[in-house]
Amino acid sequence: MSELTATSVDKKLLGFTNTETEIKRRKKIVPNGVGIFCPSTTVHANGAVITDADNNQLIDFGGGIGVLNAGHCPETVVKAIQDQAAKLIHSSFHVSTYDGYLSLCERLAGILPHGKNTKVMLTNTGAEAVENAIKIARQATNRSAVICFTEAFHGRSMMAMTLTSKINYKTGCGPFAPEVYRLPFPDHYHFGKGLTEDEFIDQELKRLDDATHSMVAPENIAAIIIELVQGEGGFNVTPQRYVEGLRKFCDEHGIMLIFDEVQSGFCRTGKWGAYQHYNVTPDISTWAKSMGSGMPIGAVMGKAEIMDAAAPGTIGGTYLGNPVCCAAALATIDLMEKENLNDRAIELSKLVASRFAIMKNKFSCIGDVRGLGAMQAIEFVKNNDPLQPDAEMVSALINNCLQRGLLLLSAGSNKNIIRILSPLVISNELLNEGLDIFEEELQKLNK
Ligand code: PMP
After folding, report:
1. Which residues have a Cβ under 8 Å from the Cβ of 170 and sit 6 or more positions away?
2. CA of residue 232 to ligand 1 center, whole Å
3. How many alpha carbons fall within 13 Å on the CB side of residue 437?
4. What's the burial of 324, exposed, middle or buried (CB within 10 Å: 0-12/13-18/19+)?
5. Are 159 and 318 in contact (CB under 8 A)?
6. Tens digits of residue pLDDT in 55-91
7. Cα separation of 72 and 75, whole Å?
8. Ligand 1: distance of its center to the CA of 37 in Å?
9. Distance between CA 100 and CA 320 in Å, rounded?
10. Ligand 1 pocket, 57 CB below 6 A?
């Protein structure tokens, strides 16, 4: 690894007085609805290290919710942002065409091909990418229904929120968008109940077929949208055969298969996109998060003829593909390529998975360890029962680890999962340092 990698942090923590003041200040002026995942502060950050309001150095295992695969403030990305901001901040791609937008689309089509001809539209966020993907799928099929899954997260705008599963993310926000149908995610760990994985997948694929009689007619289904690795849902990995089954089902019925890769994209799983592990090509896909190293940018990609089905004027927006964000994304992709972050994600995943496996043997409170590439998660349950989530353990772990200088993120509807989304540029030393803190705090809490 290069000089990007910080190898250690200043272990001496200086207390959290200023952090507490900032959190109080936040509570006074910012509505409660803007949730707090981790009661920490950030003043500046570099690589995988955050410096907080008390001048503590925190090891970042959250990556700003999976946005910082290339690390905090990579030098080349900062420079690209500065240079672009000095030249052109905005002109709106609807008003005038500029190189950054085109170059980024061409680059994305190169690393994330969708069949022979790929077309790309840029967005500001993941939710916006999802909204547009559904609009395109509906226009391409002249149908309205969309199938999604339990434990899915697709964003907080109205269609994306409707597609999202977790009730806490949508309480009181309805009425939700019509014509959305939800199937159980093929989650063998929680719901396999004595079936082998193969038997379970057969059962779930049959459930999909049955849904065409009991839930919605196939000729009304525009799209099926799925995360190949559920992000907010707790890193549930869609089984290979189920994904192949979805592809076959969609082909048979003329349905658009949409992969939401907002969290799993850009080297996180060891490939540019998780779909490249599966050898299954989506019709449409959605991207954001680590694409721009923190600048707000996302994309909808798809087979050219499908993307072209959307009528002029039906997709777009004032800021989409802002020149500064495009420059950040191009520099991020360059850096990911140069630093070979796909391979780095695999190295990192082996280290995390092996340490999690050791912890699972040691601590009875760990129910499952799972993931794809560097999307690794650890699930806490009571009485070794997948259906008895232990959210208190996760909440205590997050708070105790923060006091020791390690920033963690939870996941899952029941908040009983810890997911690792650290920058991929983290050094092995720093990663192990963070995992040591994690294990020590776990040891104290495990009864
Ligand atoms: N899809 C997935 C899979 C996500 O993980 C997220 C964000 N957590 C979104 C969509 C929404 O992205 P954004 O917050 O940028 O709107």
Report:
1. 161, 162, 164, 176
2. 9
3. 23
4. buried
5. no
6. 999 999 999 999 999 999 999 999 999 999 999 999 9
7. 9
8. 15
9. 12
10. no
